[in-house]
Amino acid sequence: MTPEKKIIDRVALDKLYESLKAAGNKMFAPVFRNEQTDFEYNPNASEISYNHIQTTQSVKNTVFPKIENLFRFESSQKGVDLLNIDFTKVPRVVVWNAHPCDAAAFSALDSVFNWDFKDEIYNSRREKLAVIGMSCIKADENCFCTSVDLNPGSVKGSDILLTPLANGTYLAEILTEQGKAIADANASLFTASNGENKEEVLAKVEKQFDHSKVTENLANGFENPFWHEFSLRCIGCGACAYVCPICTCFDIQDESKAGNGRRLRCWDSCGFGLFTLHTSGHNPREIQSQRWRQRVMHKFSYQPDRNEFIGCVGCGRCSRACPVDMNILEQLVALEKLEVAK
Question: Is the pLDDT of residue 85 over 90?
Answer without folding.
Answer: no
